[in-house]
């Protein structure tokens, strides 16, 4: 029987580590690392992961319904993590579509959901998050946007609480999907009713953010018209 939580001093990436061991892991298995040599974000981007009291955490989940059921999972995870961090820090943590947590209008944490498994088959889901607790002297080649620290917090308590809340939320997500979480999004949304721009490749689209729809698409208002935007190629910024 493998342990439920593995604590690693150094690893390339906690997400990659779990993905490489999928066949041997029970659903709900998790790992944390003190340092990542190749921490990653979306689309091959890097996650700056220095040694020293940040959190690099990944959770494995076996999703019987298959990969399609994982739509919107990063949004649900964001809501759960925002609530845990609020509870433990008392600070006004916010969510940013589709996969970040914000504090004081700056990036506090990133969530990366990676899925292995063929359509129609079981999905092997790895949910990773990097949370800045005490990130000093960032490498500006990697962190090219405003970032924030949560400050001192008991990491053992944080990991234990995250594990428990995320496992509970995953069971709920398996049964009800994103719909069980959606009404909590609005009050946590960093950009609700604010002027934003969407960066899609070379294109920039300006509008007012209006939350998300049932599928987890971002709703953007332009000239009184609301358009849903979905897909991994979009970055959201304040305008
Ligand atoms: P965003 O829209 O916020 O850039 P994204 O979802 O488009 O995020 P991701 O790949 O998810 O892009 O995030 C990676 C980005 O996060 C990097 O390009 C970098 O700007 C930023 N970043 C990397 N490491 C950190 C860190 N430790 N803290 C805050 N931001 C970081
Ligand atoms: C983002 O780019 O916003 C998502 C960043 C996700 C970083 C975390 S750190 C733990 C886990 N392992 C990785 O390599 N990435 C995720």
Principal-axis shape equals globular
Bound molecules: adenosine-5'-triphosphate, biotin
- Which architecture of the largest domain does the CATH hierarchy give at level 2? 2-Layer Sandwich
Unreliable runs, pLDDT <50, ≥5 residues?
none
Distance between the termini: 51 Å
Largest sheet, in brief, is: 7 strands, mixed
CATH-assigned fold name of the largest domain = BirA Bifunctional Protein, domain 2
Question: What is the count of distinct domains?
Answer: 2
DSSP summary, beta strand count: 12
Taking Cα atoms only, what radius of gyration do you get, to the nearest Å? 17 Å
Order of helices and strands: EHEEHEEEEHHEEEEE
Output mean pLDDT.
94
**Secondary structural class:** alpha+beta
The CATH C-level class name of the largest domain: Alpha Beta
Strand order of the largest sheet: 1-2-3-7-6-5-4
Estimated share of beta-strand residues = 25-35%
Helical amount: 10-25%
Question: What topology does this entry show?
Answer:
Elements: E1 5-11, H1 14-20, E2 30-36, E3 55-63, H2 73-89, E4 94-96, E5 100-103, E6 106-116, E7 123-131, H3 155-176, H4 182-188, E8 195-200, E9 203-212, E10 218-222, E11 225-229, E12 234-238
Parallel strand pairs: 1-2
Antiparallel strand pairs: 2-3, 3-7, 4-5, 5-6, 6-7, 8-9, 8-12, 9-10, 10-11
Bound molecules: adenosine-5'-triphosphate and biotin.
Adenosine-5'-triphosphate is lined by residues 41-43, 45, 47-48, 99-100, 107, 110, 130, 132, 135, 142-145, 147, 235-236.
Describe the protein's architecture and organization.
This protein is an alpha+beta fold. It has two domains: 5-188, Bira Bifunctional Protein, Domain 2 (BirA Bifunctional Protein, domain 2, 2-Layer Sandwich), CATH 3.30.930.10; 195-238, SH3 type barrels, CATH 2.30.30. 22% of the residues lie in helices and 34% in strands. The protein is built from four helices and twelve strands. It has helices at 14-20, 73-89, 155-176, 182-188, and strands at residues 5-11, 30-36, 55-63, 94-96, 100-103, 106-116, 123-131, 195-200, 203-212, 218-222, 225-229, 234-238. Strand 4 and strand 5 form a beta hairpin. Helix 2 (73-89) packs antiparallel against helix 3 and helix 2 crosses helix 4. The protein is globular and about 55 Å long. The mean pLDDT is 94. Bound molecules: adenosine-5'-triphosphate and biotin (BTN).
């Amino acid at each position: 029987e493998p342990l439920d939580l593995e604590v690693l001093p150094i690893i390339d990436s906690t997400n990659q580590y779990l993905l490489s061991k999928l066949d041997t892991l029970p659903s709900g298995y998790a790992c944390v690392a003190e340092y990542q040599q190749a921490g990653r974000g979306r689309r091959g981007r890097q996650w700056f992961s220095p040694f020293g009291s940040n959190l690099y955490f990944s959770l494995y989940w076996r999703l019987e319904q298959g990969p399609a059921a994982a739509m919107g999972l990063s949004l649900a995870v964001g809501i759960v993590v925002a609530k845990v961090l609020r509870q433990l820090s008392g600070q006004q943590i916010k969510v940013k579509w589709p996969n970040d947590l914000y504090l004081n209008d700056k990036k506090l944490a990133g969530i990366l959901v990676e899925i292995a498994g063929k359509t129609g088959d079981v999905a092997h889901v790895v949910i990773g998050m990097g949370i800045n607790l005490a990130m000093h002297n960032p490498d500006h080649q990697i962190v090219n946007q405003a970032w924030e620290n949560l400050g001192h917090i008991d990491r053992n308590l944080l990991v234990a609480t995250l594990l428990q809340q995320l496992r509970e939320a995953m069971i709920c997500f398996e049964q009800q999907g994103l719909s069980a979480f959606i009404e909590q999004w609005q009050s946590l949304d960093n950009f609700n009713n604010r002027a934003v721009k969407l960066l899609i490749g070379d294109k920039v689209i300006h509008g007012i953010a209006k939350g998300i729809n049932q599928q987890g698409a971002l709703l953007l208002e332009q000239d009184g018209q609301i358009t849903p935007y979905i897909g991994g190629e979009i970055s959201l910024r304040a305008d």
